[in-house]
Amino acid sequence: MVSVKTPRGVRRTDALLSDGRELIYYDPADLPARVPLEDTRGLPAPQPQVDLRTDPLTGDVITYATHRNTRTYLPPADQCPLCASKPGNPTEIPDHDYNVAVFENRFPSFAGPGRTEVLCFTSDHNSSFTQLSQGQARLVVDAWADRNADLSARDDIEYVFPFENRGREIGVTLNHPHGQIYGYPFIPPRMRTLMARAREHQAVAGSNLFADILAAERKEGTRVIAENGNWTAFVPEAARWPVEVHLYPHRQVAGIDDLSIGERDDFAQLYLDVLGRLDGLYGEALPYIAAWHQAPVRIDRELGYLHLEVLSIRRAADKIKYLAGSESGMGAFISDTSPEDVAETLRKVRS
């Protein structure tokens, strides 16, 4: 079964893979309508093994997904499952080409309650988000927004987390440019902490914690690395990671789907600028995690403030920041880099 929708002027085409998983294509609305090709692989129905347990010491939910230990690991380019299909290599995307594609993960971290999806930024295996055109990056933003709206409407999802892992040092298992979207059936630990802090701040200061952080960074200015009409990118004052950049919209919104057309345009422009600076930091592609922070689906909506955090474990051109005793054992970060120095360096890159 195929259905076509046009959220915010983008053409969305829904299809099914041979094992029943959903596949969604996102195309510019001015392109000809897509007629998806059939997935001929004849895959068996997924049988994920997932167990959720709560740590009595911290209250954190730990997810056990043992089936993921058999997932595809760094295949050669001609066997990449995220490329468009071609003779001899039928993939997760049956069509011969695509712009942006999203599908249910074949090796999901959650099953039953919750959902995990893969979002392919482009069909070009040798590209990266940094190399996308602004129009292509903008299409990814629209796909994020549409998926956030869909997943937030589900009763079994409490938090929607779009993210990208980039680079072998981060632990990627597929080199094709892509991200993931986790629909958690619980509020993840970091967001529980952030919302608790935001609640305390609101009670004491009478204002939104994230809005006040953004205002302070823009006023102080030494850690701001780039901005435009709707967004500001800065290194946070208490950055944990050797390289860490936060991108905030100037208007408080709860989720990606709440962004206006102009805010989506300006995000694509600024994010590509920031990624270019990050890749210029050491003269090569920087390993990073890009993590969207949105408001929880059902609670604390008024306390949340959509923003993107980009972090890297590379602390020098030839050195990696490992989470050793203090970080892993006690959760107390000790940094080898200064936020002000990192911000000054990033401002000079490509300037």
UniProtKB/TrEMBL annotation:
Catalytic EC class: transferase
Keyword check for Transcription: no
Residues at the active site: 178
Pfam families (UniProt xref): GalP_UDP_tr_C, GalP_UDP_transf
Any GO CC annotation of this UniProt entry: cytoplasm
Annotated Zn(2+) binding sites: 80, 83, 125, 176
Family affiliation: Belongs to the galactose-1-phosphate uridylyltransferase type 1 family.
Source species of the chain: Kribbella antibiotica
Catalytic activity: alpha-D-galactose 1-phosphate + UDP-alpha-D-glucose = alpha-D-glucose 1-phosphate + UDP-alpha-D-galactose
InterPro entries: GalP_UDPtransf1, GalP_UDPtransf1_His-AS, GalP_Utransf_C, GalP_Utransf_N, HIT-like_sf
Pathway participation: Carbohydrate metabolism; galactose metabolism
Entry GO MF terms: UDP-glucose:hexose-1-phosphate uridylyltransferase activity; zinc ion binding
EC number of the protein: 2.7.7.12
Gene3D superfamilies attached to this UniProt entry: HIT-like
Domain Galactose-1-phosphate uridyl transferase N-terminal: 114-188
Domain of life: Bacteria
Cofactor(s) essential for the protein: Zn(2+)
Keyword 4Fe-4S in record: no
Cofactor: how bound: Binds 1 zinc ion per subunit.
GO biological process: one example: galactose catabolic process via UDP-galactose, Leloir pathway
Keywords, in A-Z order: Carbohydrate metabolism, Galactose metabolism, Metal-binding, Nucleotidyltransferase, Transferase, Zinc
Name of the protein described by the UniProt record: Galactose-1-phosphate uridylyltransferase
Domain Galactose-1-phosphate uridyl transferase C-terminal, first and last residues per copy: 201-316
